[in-house]
Amino acid sequence: MKAAVFKAFGAADQMVIVDLPRPEPQPDEVLVRVRAAAVNPKDTFIRKGYLKAFTGEQFPMQTGFDFAGEIAAVGPETEGASLDTAVYGMLDGWEGQACAEYLAVKPHQLAAMPAGLSFEEAAALPLVCSTALQALRDQAGIKPGHAVCINGAAGGVGTAGVRIVKILGADVTAIASPGNHDFLRGLGADHCVDYQSEDITQSGRRFDIFFDVFGNRPFDSVLPILKPRGVWVSTVLQPHVFKSVEETKNSTGRKAQLVVVAARRNDLDQIRGWVEAGQLEPVIHQVYPLEQIGEAHAQQETKHTRGKLVIRIA
Ligand SMILES: NC(=O)c1ccc[n+]([C@@H]2O[C@H](COP(=O)([O-])OP(=O)(O)OC[C@H]3O[C@@H](n4cnc5c(N)ncnc54)[C@H](OP(=O)(O)O)[C@@H]3O)[C@@H](O)[C@H]2O)c1
Predict the structure, then answer these.
(1) Are residues 230 and 182 part of one domain?
(2) What CATH number does residue 305 fall under?
(3) Residues 8 and 25 both lie in one domain
(4) Ligand 1 centroid to 253 CA: how many Å?
(5) Which of 31, 125, 173, 264 has the greatest CB tally within 10 Å of its CB?
(6) Paired residues of 69 in beta bridges
(7) Which atom of ligand 1 is nearest to 157's Cα?
(8) How many angstroms does the Cα of residue 303 sit away from the middle of ligand 1?
(9) Is the dihedral of CA 99, 108, 300, 125 positive or negative?
(10) Largest CA distance in the chain
(11) Could you tell me the pTM of the whole model?
(12) Does some domain include residue 298?
């Protein structure tokens, strides 16, 4: 099968397409014929070797965590998966393998694909929507009427976050560059703030939840704009985040949290339900053929992608 790999840690031009053996699903796994995948910042961090403590250094190394496709084989210990069903989902952990023609996954990592979407559209949803949902619902305890601020609102996780805040009945302030403000209002943002010319801490607004998706607004820097029981949630695995989480873990006042996304069938089902109800839609910056995955990684590294970068496999 065709698969995107890199043979050494390095720049985006390390990405190449090779022929690999088709994976054999374990008895508790499902084999997916992948039709589309998506790129996440994690893929580029892994390719650069930043996460080698987790990934190891065995090459060639595959890439990709989001996928959409069809079930091609089912292990005897899996239940409820039938051949040829259209599915979408995401891998956990550090082994990206979705940018390939076939992928073996555990049943909790996939769900029925939302009706009415193409494979490319479906592949744009799982990781970023699961991250935003798990951050807002599980870490921050979002409630209707809450005031939420999302820093990094125009990217993959941010655009999913804006939509999910609105679905859950809260008010959302979106921090992004001015060229993205009309686009974010179109997604439902109630207020937009330009990080280049405005300081959110001087805005006079107060938030129940500050979701630092981009990763450059530490807990201490937003304390003045967090309500007394407000929650700051970060996506980045950095020492200042671990420190703030540890320091506030017993706090009955303002708290710091870290989201570490996990594949969950229930969340994929929830995301599908919102898509089918017309409340949530994929935001796609560009679709690339598998052969151009290096270009997609390079675009992801600009840090100015609007929504998702999708890889068409077949
Ligand atoms: N912990 C987890 O489980 C988890 C899960 C998913 C993602 N993440 C992490 O979350 C981060 C974001 O992921 P993503 O997929 O959303 O990335 P992304 O799509 O690459 O984010 C790009 C967005 O960042 C915005 N941006 C650039 N500079 C900014 C600034 N100075 N202030 C505010 N926004 C800025 C850009 O908006 P403009 O073009 O308007 O500047 C752009 O739309 C990454 O570090 C990723 O690794 C963690």
Answers:
(1) yes
(2) 3.90.180.10
(3) yes
(4) 27
(5) 125
(6) 34, 87
(7) 16
(8) 6
(9) positive
(10) 59
(11) 0.98
(12) yes
- Token pair, residue 268, equals 């994929």
Same domain, 290 and 215: no
Residue 188 within any structural domain of the chain: yes
Phi, psi of 221 (to 5 degrees): -75, -20
* Residue 300 within any structural domain of the chain: yes
Spatial distance between the Cα atoms of 46 and 51, rounded to a whole number of angstroms? 5
Q: For each of the chain's 314 residues, which pLDDT tens digit applies?
A: 999 999 999 999 999 999 999 999 999 999 999 999 999 999 999 999 999 999 999 999 999 999 999 999 999 999 878 898 999 999 999 999 999 999 999 999 999 999 999 999 999 999 999 999 999 999 999 999 999 999 999 999 999 999 999 999 999 999 999 999 999 999 999 999 999 999 999 989 999 999 999 999 999 999 999 999 999 999 999 999 999 999 999 999 999 999 999 999 999 999 999 999 999 999 999 999 999 999 999 999 999 999 999 999 98
> Alpha-carbon distance 149 to 172, whole Å?
6
Domain boundary among 258, 274, 304: 258
Same domain for 141 and 240? yes
Strands (E), the chain: 2-6, 15-19, 30-39, 61-62, 66-74, 86-90, 102-105, 110-112, 147-151, 171-176, 191-194, 207-212, 226-234, 255-258, 284-289, 308-312
Residue ID of nearest Cα to ligand 1 atom 35: 152
Residue 51 structural domain: 2-125+283-312
Question: How remote is the CA of residue 156 from the centroid of ligand 1, in Å?
Answer: 7
